[in-house]
Amino acid sequence: MTTTMYRWLVFAAASALLIFVGWWTNVRLKKKAALAAAAGGDEKAFLLGGNEMGPFVAAGTLMATGYSGWGFIGSPGTAYAYGTIEILGNFFFAPAITFGALFFANFMRKNGEKFGALTVPEYLANTHEGSEGLRRLVHFLAAIATFIFMSVYMIGQIRAVGSVASEWLGISIHTSAVIFMCVVMIFTMQGGLLAVAITDTIMCCGMVIASVIVYFVITQDISLTELIAKVAEMKPEFINPTSSNPYGEAKYSVFLVFVYAMLFTTVLPYMSVRFLAMKKTLSIPLVAVYMAPMGFAMSFVPLVGIYMYAKDPTWPQVLAEGATGHIADHAMPVFLNTYLSPALASIITLFIIFAMLSTISSVLQVQASALSHDLFVSVAGKDSKYADMLNRGAVVVTTLLGLFLTFVAPQGMLNQIAYIGTGGLISMLVGPTIVRTFITGNLLTCLLSMLTGFCSNVYLVLYGGLGWVESPIVAGIAGSIVYMVVGYISNGMRAKPAAAQ
Amino acid sequence: MFFNSWTLDTFAVCSIILFVVPIIAFIREKSGKGESD
User: Crossing angle of helices A269-277/A41-48, nearest 10°?
Assistant: First the structure.
């Protein structure tokens, strides 16, 4: 059997498994909804997985979604180019995602249930008091921002999966992106959030296995201490950096990655919707106990870049001659092709593609629910009679739109959106999500905080000269201050309205 | 401290915190001291 045929077989088996999970989840949720016979049961089943998410699945889906393909391709490349600062920067996602879930999931889960929120934009609108018109405006704005700014993230992931999968299967980037997006679309359309969460968990297991194999292969050749000592001799700056580049000029700027990732976990709808979907009786600390080793294992992947540098600091120029993209991004592909057997390299490449697919499926599900449920409810002011069909149809529309934007939309337009990107969404939602845990603002407070956060981020990115890590943090602080001040004043100089106290 | 590298030493210390904090939270929940679900 040729290597390409073997890879196609592996791809077919993995796709069949993911689609089977989508089908099985759909059957399970339909049965549950029929038994409960609750109004809107179908929609809750699709958008929140019927609150069926247990601790292991919750941990797996949060980690798999948080660690995108960057962790396996971009991060080793960055470690090759900048040294151990990237190991620390990449690692910070593990505690940030774990602690984000540990400290905020319970609050969001309880309030989501109490106020009947099926999505994060709806959570923001329903957990704040105010007029019906203002509620619908906040709901609409949060939904439209989620849809637009998540699009850029989606496009980046589709491009990455197309690029890696085309080399793996020996087909064009366009064809591979279309094939993989079809697989994601089918299981997301079938089983909604629960199918996405379960497939994420399967993919997370693959990602952890890939990380362990990578670590094992490296340490079979050279011990960790020897590797560090060798690189320290070759380039001391790689082991004891005097700046946090590429995360900032200051020595300790890398710590901001922790803050950024914590905000990203807590407020970005494609992560935090999982908090709303957790089982009512689930132990959040248990979720965190499962998350810690998953995140820890995946933190070792950038070590590939350090290892490749120690082997030969000049190899990328030679081995990746004629290759497209950033030259250091070939650290992982060259490592796989050089130090692993073709069969093992194929499996690990599949797991790397899994890392991208798990993020794509989560973003797709959140975009689709923003397009169907959130926009309909905020505009019409009621649930649709055809909600189930709308939600599933929106998955197809969002997939097609994602592919269209990836390959057809003018790059200039995408760059404009990307400038603001997920940072804009983070800075917009920090106040109403995080500050809301200790100050109960009303809808006007929520709206002002969202607008302040968003506008500050746009200003800082375009004119403030701050990077993608600092801008959303500073803008998020601005939005949070507005939320605190306006919330406190509108409550009559109290943290909570007098009625609530 | 561990690796003669501030980045890797921070990585090591934060890894310990990453494991310890959830375990403490879990034990507190089980013993009824933490927030119960």
Answer: 130
* Interatomic CA distance for residues A64 and A119, integer angstroms: 20
Q: A461 or A214: which carries more pLDDT confidence?
A: A214
Q: What is the mean pLDDT of residues A178-197?
A: 93
> What is the pLDDT at residue A300?
92
What's the whole-model pTM score?
A: 0.91
Q: How many CB atoms lie within 10 A of CB A24?
A: 16
Yes or no, beta carbons of B26 and A285 under 8 Å apart: yes
Instruction: Report whether A128 contacts A442 (CB < 8 A).
Output: yes
Least confident of A87-96, A171-180, A411-420, A430-439: A411-420
The predicted-structure confidence for A64-86, as pLDDT tens digits, reads as follows 988 877 788 888 988 998 999 99
Range A12-19 average pLDDT: 94
Q: What angle do CA A272, A206, A301 make, to 5 degrees?
A: 85
DSSP 3-state helix, strand, coil percentages of chain A (rounded to 5)? Answer: 80, 0, 20
Determine the residue of chain B that is closest to A244 in CA distance. Answer: B7
Show residues of chain B in contact with A293, CB under 8 Å: 19
Write the DSSP symbol of residue A328.
G
A239/B22 Cβ within 8 A: no
User: Does residue A90 contact residue A82 with C-beta atoms inside 8 Å?
Assistant: no
Please, is A8 exposed, middle or buried when counting C-beta atoms within 10 Å of its C-beta (0-12, 13-18, 19+)?
Answer: middle
pLDDT at residue A497 above 90? no
Check A84 against B7: CB less than 8 A apart.
yes
- Cβ–Cβ of B5/A240 closer than 8 Å? yes
Q: How close B26 gets to chain A, by Cα (Å)?
A: 5
Secondary structure of A386-448 in the HEC alphabet?
A: CHHHHHHHHHHHHHHHHHHHHHCCCHHHHHHHHHHHHHHHHHHHHHHHHHHHCCCCEHHHHHH
Mean pLDDT in residue range A248-263:
90
Q: Within an 8 Å CB–CB cutoff, is residue B31 touching chain A?
A: no
Q: Cis peptide before A246, with omega less than 30 degrees from 0?
A: yes
At residue B36, the pLDDT reads: 46
Nearest Cα of chain A lies from the Cα of B8 at a distance, in angstroms, of 7
Nearest residue in B to A242, CA atom: B6
Q: What residues of A are in contact with residue B14 (Cβ under 8 Å)?
A: 91-92, 95
ipTM reported for the complex, 2 dp: 0.93
Residue A332 has pLDDT above 90, yes or no: no
Instruction: State how far the Cα of A203 lies from the Cα of A21, in Å rounded to an integer.
Output: 12
Which residue out of B1, B2, B11, B13 would a mutagenesis test of the A interface target, given it has the greatest number of A Cβ atoms within 10 Å? B11
- The pLDDT value recorded for residue A413 is 64
pLDDT > 50? residue A500: yes
Would you list which residues of chain A are within 8 Å, Cβ to Cβ, of chain B? 83-85, 87-88, 91-92, 94-95, 98-99, 102, 106, 225, 228, 232, 239-241, 254, 280-286, 288-289, 291-293, 295-296, 299
